[in-house]
Design a protein that fits this description.
It contains five helices and three strands; from the N terminus they run H-H-H-E-E-H-E-H. The chain is of the alpha+beta class. Strands 1-2-3 form a three-stranded mixed beta sheet. The chain has one domain: Fe-S cluster assembly (FSCA) (GMP Synthetase, Chain A, domain 3, 2-Layer Sandwich). 32% of the residues lie in helices and 14% in strands.
């Protein structure tokens, strides 16, 4: 038996995962689309967040428009925000454009902030 097969990674408990999820949402809400005065979480720009048992985080996100002027910078802003969470491992943020973003992905809070009701 080689050493690699004898190493086990402790699984995150549901309570730990819930706490990390709350912290992730809190940090994602600190990143704003510079053209729209609403955070990226409420805008619905975060498509997927995976947290591994070793607390590595992988995020799929999109932009309100593919030609967004901060397309090259926003994934870095998101990664920097997530890295502020104590104990988080590696952070990977990927931009995806399928499915394309549209205003129906916005939360009611975001729609209220933008007077879209």
């Amino acid at each position: 038996m080689d050493d690699a097969s004898s190493i086990t990674t402790p699984q995150l408990s549901q309570a730990e995962l819930d706490a990390i999820t709350d912290q992730l949402i809190e940090q994602l809400k600190t990143v704003f689309d510079p053209e729209i005065p609403v955070d990226i979480y409420e805008l619905g720009l975060i498509y997927k967040v995976d947290v591994s048992d070793s607390k590595d985080v992988a995020i799929d996100m999109t932009l309100t428009a593919p030609g967004c002027p901060v397309a090259g910078e926003m994934p870095g802003w998101v990664a920097d925000a997530v890295r502020k969470i104590p104990g988080i491992g590696q952070v990977k943020v990927d931009l995806v454009f399928d499915p394309p973003w549209d205003p129906s992905r916005m939360s009611d809070e975001a729609k209220l902030q933008l007077n879209m009701f």
